[in-house]
Amino acid sequence: MLNSIKNCFNTEDFRKLAKRKLPFPVFHYIDGAADDEVTLRRNTQAFEEVDLIPNVLKGVENIDISTELMGKRISTPLFFSPTALQRLFHHQGEIAVGKAAQNFNTFFGISSLATASIEEIGEKFSSPKIFQMYIHKDKGLNDSMIEKCKINNFDALAITLDTIVGGNRERDLRTGFTSPPKLDFNSFLSYAFHPEWTLNYLFRKKFELPQLQDFVSEGTNINISVGDYFSTMLDQSITWKDIEEIKNQWGGHLCLKGIMSVEDAKKCIDVGATAIMISNHGGRQLDGSRAPFDQLAEIVDAVGDKIDVICDGGIRRGSHVLKALSLGAKACSGGRYYLYALAAGGYEGTLRAFQLIQEEIIRDMKLMGCNSLKDLNKDNLRFR
Q: Which phi and psi (to 5°) does residue 160 adopt?
């Protein structure tokens, strides 16, 4: 039985340990997705239907896995996708993830629904930083987040576009998960039988959503599910013109997250974006949608020479990263692979999880006979 991060050697190991450590409403918030969770499963399964073709005797004693993304040279082609509510998973929250990202010189991000402030992240970390923005109905809130990111030297703004309404996250409906957590008859015993988590939540720094709390009470003082938050608080009237206006207001690197079609990828270029994240929100929005890896080739073929393409979602192994890079992605990102580890062991867990995947990337590069990421291409792959 897993009882320590030292016994974790892959994402599934961290998942099992996180399940042991978290109250069930919190675990299933990380683990779950929309409807029948078909897309959630497909996000990883898509990688398994493509085989790598290695070459030998290539002199691979020293290899380079660095890449340039959104104007920054990062030391590895994988980064930490921005995710919400991280202090619910472990009391160190976004600070633990930022420390791990800085250790590996790669991007990490915080969400509009982060439990650490833009100011705190800007002050603590000099490594590449993304702010993930949800466009709210409250224009003052939107302006506040953008201005704070400019003042605190964030390197890129990532706007999530696929959350116009909340996905039908049935696990959250069954467990009653809300932000902040709500105690009821069904969940009380789970919180009681996880005293370490419960004591940390009750007696450490007060749970809050710093980006939101001066503008809305939902999520910090009023219990609300994430799905309901999206459906009631976010602006459903936005168009590409609004994105162009935000780009002009921001003035820096703009990444658009939730792109799944060639048509939309081309529009991202038209509005001045410098990167896109091919993403279905981890299967948490539209169940039955394509996996990012399934869509990667046609999007890269259409726009890969004009914009940085990031494959986001389903990453569980270093070999998955190499497959995405072989199809032309500049980098990969994901959430669950590090959130399970954060829940299992805070900073040390997050660090170990990323270290394991990075070791896989390096080892698999050598086994592929590749000296740098430029050596990866479609000739490395065979689709079954």
A: -85, 125
